[in-house]
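To: structure desk
From: M.T.
Subject: fold request, one chain
Message: Could you run this one when you get a chance? Sequence is below, nothing fancy, just the single chain.
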Amino acid sequence: MTVTTDQMVQLITPTGERRPHPVYEGLIADLDGAALRGLYEDLVVVRRIDAEGTALQRQGQLGLWAPMLGQEAAQIGSGRALQTEDFVFPSYREHGVAYCRGVDPADVFGMWRGTSLSCWDPYDINMAIPAIIIGAQGLHATGYALGLKRDGVEAAAVAYFGDGATSQGDIAEALGFSATYQAPVVFFCQNNHWAISEPVGLQAQVPIYQRAAGYGMPGIQVDGNDVLAVLAVTRWALQRAREGSGPALIEAVTYRMGPHTTADDPTRYRPTGELEEWRERDPLTRMLALLQREGLADEAYLEGVRAKADAVAAELRAGCLALPDPAPLSMFDNVYAEAHPLVAEERAQYAAYLDGFEGSN
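Reply: Done. Structure tokens follow.
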């Protein structure tokens, strides 16, 4: 599916020039030089976190990793629009959003290393654990948002999902239910053009954001490689939800530069030249060009950003390798809030199985 730029909200061109907009430009008017520098630092750091995750998997330290390379602006822009009271329901690729929410980078790796069934306590940072079932988080976000509305809390829920998830019934049901009850939820679709090995045009005959009209909610298409545009659009949708005006659908048009997961080989299905075309729209290159145009990227600052990324990478690698292996029987500890006889029976059977191995005692 070909997407023309005049359909999208864009505040920075790929060459780093400001692009005025009558509505959304005003929503980022508070960003001074320090804030712009901070956004670029975020982009660099989360790319380094992602690269470290891929390296750790290739070295046998993680069982699997879902790279976010190329999608940094979509995640940092939307993540920095969130307020503390908002609650995030991610898929399995929102490492950048987790960073914005204050997750210790090493904690991101627990699930991928197999040392825990989740990555963090959701209520510590108001962000649910990664959803592996495609699209399920849309329903979770809708339910949580309805709870916010019933409790009179001025906050919003955000559901992150990819273009592939828009073909799932869970997302369709979430959109319909949230619109009916005017739930304060923002549906944030990162259209990275590939649902594993299938192109978005195979399942989306019209731009994804246009589906919102059928549910009676606003739909916005934003340049997902433009961190300022994403920040502005997400601020608008979140504030609208918090004020009681109901849900909205954001389609952030971006590109997955890496594989779907480290078990995937994108060279088998991507057309020749597509990756190079999107590299010219790299979100980090674009933001750096803007800083340079505005005199905000001297060498001392850039060196500081590189040093921060190096420090975070070293810390998360050390933290990942230090994650303790769980005791085998611990998998039964938190199945139910109270003791359950069937779980006790399964625990006993598994304990007997483990005792059958030589040297188990």
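Reply (cont.): The longest helix spans residues 33-58. Let me know if you need anything else for the meeting.
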